Amino acid sequence: MDIGINKKDREKISAGLSHLLADSYTLYLMTHNFHWNVTGPMFNTLHLMFMTQYTEQWTALDLIAERIRALGFPAPGTYKEFVRLASIKEVDGQPKALEMVRHLVDAQEAVARTARGLLPLMDKANDQPSIDLITQRLDVHEKTAWMLRSLLEE
């Protein structure tokens, strides 16, 4: 394989993207869970908002996994791998609506931190497609975190 990025750099970038995929999948699952289980006066607003978010996240999972594959490495795809690789922890029980929002803010910010941490390596390797993917993901996660934080203000 000769795409202009050496194997060592492709391997490091793929490993980083695997962590991003695990964080993203964990966020996806958390958001979908909250969509199904939210209750209270904000039900309709949050139910629809969470659906929009998990639908966008689902599409992103494929883009991240496909980038890992394009770099020549297998993408993680099991719960066991995702638990091992993710920085986001699962939420126990069924929190109240605003607590769900707080968990999602934290998770969105965690995904953004994971993504941002990959940029120096990608830049050094001259990997523009991965940089483009990360830049797009950062925009989505930072904007979503801001929108969710806005719901917590009084």
UniProtKB/TrEMBL annotation:
Family: Belongs to the Dps family.
Ferritin/DPS domain segment(s): 16-153
Family matches, as InterPro entries: DPS_DNA-bd, DPS_DNA-bd_CS, Ferritin-like, Ferritin-like_SF, Ferritin_DPS_dom
Alphabetized CDD domains for the sequence: DPS
PANTHER family in UniProt: DNA PROTECTION DURING STARVATION PROTEIN, GENERAL STRESS PROTEIN 20U
Protein name (database record): Ferritin
Annotated GO MF terms: ferric iron binding; oxidoreductase activity, acting on metal ions
Gene3D superfamilies according to UniProt: 1.20.1260.10
